Fold these 2 entries.
Entry 1:
Amino acid sequence: MTADTLSLEDTMRRLGLRARAAADALAQAPTEAKNRALTEAAREIRAQAAEIAAANAADVADATAKGVSGALLDRLTLDAARIEAMAAGLEAVAALPDPVGRSLARWSRPNGLDIERVAVPLGVIGIIFESRPNVAADAGALCLKSGNAAILRGGSESHRSVRAIHRALAVGIKAAGLPEDAIQAIPTTDRAAVGILLTMDDTVDVIVPRGGKGLIERVSRESRIPVFKHLDGINHTYIHSGADAAMARAVTLNAKMRRTGVCGATETVLVDRAALGSHLPGVLDALIGAGCAVRGDAEVRALDPRVAPASDADWDTEYLDAIVSVKAVAGLDEAVAHIAAHGSHHTDAIVTGDAAAAEAFLNAVDSAIVLVNASTQFADGGEFGMGAEIGISTGRFHARGPVGLEQLTSYKYKVRGTGQTRP
Amino acid sequence: MTADTLSLEDTMRRLGLRARAAADALAQAPTEAKNRALTEAAREIRAQAAEIAAANAADVADATAKGVSGALLDRLTLDAARIEAMAAGLEAVAALPDPVGRSLARWSRPNGLDIERVAVPLGVIGIIFESRPNVAADAGALCLKSGNAAILRGGSESHRSVRAIHRALAVGIKAAGLPEDAIQAIPTTDRAAVGILLTMDDTVDVIVPRGGKGLIERVSRESRIPVFKHLDGINHTYIHSGADAAMARAVTLNAKMRRTGVCGATETVLVDRAALGSHLPGVLDALIGAGCAVRGDAEVRALDPRVAPASDADWDTEYLDAIVSVKAVAGLDEAVAHIAAHGSHHTDAIVTGDAAAAEAFLNAVDSAIVLVNASTQFADGGEFGMGAEIGISTGRFHARGPVGLEQLTSYKYKVRGTGQTRP
């Protein structure tokens, strides 16, 4: 039976078994081999830049013919700068410390047993992504460096681009003497392949969905495999009465407007009633001056006629756009309660000069990232010093917040004895 | 509408919402309050010992009338010693360090941001268990101490016992001023309640199944919530040619026969061909002398006529009984390959005096716990110094191996700045 005549189910199961075998070998691979694979892959991406661009041009032409919109088309497009960024990204991951084999804890027991917790790879990671083909290189590199085998599944509109990128990665992997199945791309655009992948809990250990809400919800619903979930980022910046007014203005403007489409962008500003007159006008001037539409409650609107009325739905909306909702609160407790009721446990910030209020906010707000006197746009693995991230987890299981190399590992216990038996 | 007229679905959803509210309060509860709840609950369990015993007697009588078997009946029965053990267990958990609020890591960024990773509770934990009613106290205590709200669901045959234990826990929780919903028991024996619980991913963060393979497989299949899985313990003790013969004998005997029904028990012994004549006779004498039935391959049988033939299925069987399979291998590589092919990634050991072989085995065997010169029966949170465990995870996501208080936490990032904005 040739590959062509295998059923999709068989094709996927075989892919899983090959990934599992590759993962077993990768778990033992020396750091130097993994780094060599990454730097050779970077070299190959640069060498194959014309071929990758041509494959991408064919994908873009198809998408254009289908009437695909501007933003999606932009995400799909790989220009020379983006191809170089992929290569540089591979080199950056090669330069990061190897997360495998780290000794996470070690202690001795009264009976003399020496117990050590050591980081090991998770195993096989399924990456399901949408239009950005560069995710193949970025996510594949993080998996490889953390000793995990990867199964890549890009959007059907980017399949030629993903295949071209995958070919370059494979050259690097082979050059380093690592198993070629370390990074596999699902060889079909059949949508049913994703459904099968999500049931392969005998060979796949974790699923990473990278894309819009629809994709993540489908994956969460169907998967029998643990998922690094990334849901909404309904983030708040809370201007406490003890805030420095200039800092409140600068931090809030950055949190909302630096980039409005990222998950760390602030969507709602809360302001202490006591700071309405002193702090908010400057903040509103800055936001509106930068082109942001402001929707506020009655107290905020009374302050500035440019503010439109906010509806109840505004407090629960992730705009991902140059829109912000603004609400007056009585103080810290009401701010915390509003965030608990309307936030998404992603990233929230307080601006304050009051150290006690800062610590109270850090403790009381149950979000992956809670900041004091800093922009919510710092919600990013690179900004945290992790070098790169495969995403930000809004779940609480295994990893929360930026998912970098360390978060792509599990652990095992090494127990060293001298003949101990249990009484 | 009274509770009686609520549909099961409504009842369960309300239970989940109450648990979520309790979890928010518990996350902020001081260590002293949690400890007080546990010690007061211990006091109440002792004070209510007669009532708990009476409730249990009614459960036991029902089960007996239904013709329930000896082992299950034993697990169901709470005698005075087991009731006292529950009380002492609550006090032991009170004495453990609080895992919430631990600073797990802290670093500064070049821009001056101070980033701290701090342990927080997971949230709401659903505990689904079978016949042992004492799990209600043991698991409830671990959840409470780690700041998590618990929803308990015992087997229908133990519902009176669980209700009585839950009443005592509630008295302790109330005495400490903590939310009464911190530990709830599902108020119905309707089996459909479990199915509903497993879909409540808006209010429940983690599911812990405690029971047989059937329960764990059902939970894994149906759950939309992350599960602490505990599958088979097909564990190996490998006698390397460099082993001390007396140590091999003592460690193997203990690993197999100390208790045969625990998940850390050894099920297969692998022996280097070079050690067959020197090491195996003493091991076989010890095992057979202790009442263990031995099944071996041809080489092992040639050595001792008391050894029965092993079938292919034996290498994949978790006996949980006084039966062991024994196989000769060429050396470390074949032992590791056998464990990879037939083991369950739970707990495996090597006996050897060769330090290089020991480290090679520790690195190459992909199990939650890998031991050198020690009994596999040490696979236990208490033996690891964790104080108590809610189970042993054979999954790789979030926690692997014994799940104690620390493994019942997630984390968040506290980021302290001085007005930083992101370029």
Entry 2:
Amino acid sequence: MFKRVVICGVGLIGGSFALALKSAGMVETVVGVGRRPETLDEARQLDLIDEVASDWAVALKGADLLLLAMPVGQMNAVMEAVAPHLEPQTLVTDAGSTKSDVFAAIYTHLKHHLANVVPAHPIAGAEKSGPTAATAGLFQGKRVVITQLPESDPQAVARVREAWAACGAVINEMSPLDHDRVFAAVSHLPHLLAFGLVHEIQSRGNAEQLFSFAASGFRDFTRIAGSHPEMWRDICTSNRQALLAELDAYLTELAYLRALLLQGDGPALESVFEQASAARNAWAEKYLK
Amino acid sequence: MFKRVVICGVGLIGGSFALALKSAGMVETVVGVGRRPETLDEARQLDLIDEVASDWAVALKGADLLLLAMPVGQMNAVMEAVAPHLEPQTLVTDAGSTKSDVFAAIYTHLKHHLANVVPAHPIAGAEKSGPTAATAGLFQGKRVVITQLPESDPQAVARVREAWAACGAVINEMSPLDHDRVFAAVSHLPHLLAFGLVHEIQSRGNAEQLFSFAASGFRDFTRIAGSHPEMWRDICTSNRQALLAELDAYLTELAYLRALLLQGDGPALESVFEQASAARNAWAEKYLK
């Protein structure tokens, strides 16, 4: 049970965390902090949060838990701002989609507080963002990856695990480096590719004609191109080394497919498609309900 | 009303066409023809078709309409086989996802029958295939692109339009060249990219770990990688000129994104993501219910 939870960035993730903790009866008061007063007002009206604070000293007074749920590009500035106001007992966790950069920010700004810092990443994106997209069930059955520091106190880790478990999440632990490589491959690269495809098409003279014939394949392939531009700018720049490695591996794959197309090599194309199709269907069988 | 409709390839598309015509009361007898007796038996048991024929002379005797719904790589062989058995009144249409190659096959094999040939492409894919995937409602509200020949008889075009309209489809007309360029961009390229992504990931030593952290973004982006390998082999080789042009345009886009990542150019990445996100959301607003 938490008495006072402070959430910085009350959008899809922060708002859903608040709702989930509330509906699990795990929190007394949720305080929202953020850049945009309109967003905080909206979150207050939607009962995601109980209080709005515009001052870190006020927000963090007596806080059990601080969740940093804004785009990762703001981690440095926010950690610097909160550092002087953290009380010894306040747990700090985050919902950043990248972890190496969050670690760097932590060791720069929260050196005095490391025992109570437990970074995490809930794997529950959506192409919708903002407080109105928040739901109490967003994390139900979803994974949360905890990337604890060597300095994280085991009790702090246990409390942060409890909070995410109360949201219905399944918890895994990973190193920040492994985390960033894995998500570059299965999340960040697909987002970049989907943004790129739509960006390329919308720039054409006949974009309207093209869009008018796009069907369900296009719909699903590009769903993630509707994602939050600033959030994805921050993820791509924060994790750019791992993402570049993934992009280069993919460009090698595309160069191979291009050669097969150029040669009209049907059997080799079919073999690629068969391996992909078998792997995709096995994945769906195992991981989709 | 059709008395005898013959369908070559009773899978998702052919089977759904049969079911839709039946439920609209537009057909008396549907005859199935295909390579695999098991598939035809299955289609018969599912009541997609009323008769199975293993001989074109028998199948086409008294036929009003022949739908060619097998993968486009078989168009030449099937047209060559049916040509001697077509009765003067038999309309010929197809469901091929590419059109320039279908035109070439028509002018090679059906020269004596051009007035009654009306090529078409129903835009209603699914990652599922085979007779069990067929539904009467598959084409409801979906587009069908008709690419008539200069020689197509207007009455033949009207009858083929009627058949697809009875399936609930919205009909458009295009030239085969425009058709192939448009679908290379909004369908064939996304399929190739999704196949490529899954193929690349499944070849890794840590594929299992990667797949285990793949979430909803990956799920939707790669749905079409579960598509029918042979069908997509044929589409990619048949339409490879247009597809190569699209792939090259996309590779240019990726080279640009790669440069932005390498430079860590956040503002330029955000601008790309904003344009893509705005275009994707406008598309969804306009075309998705």
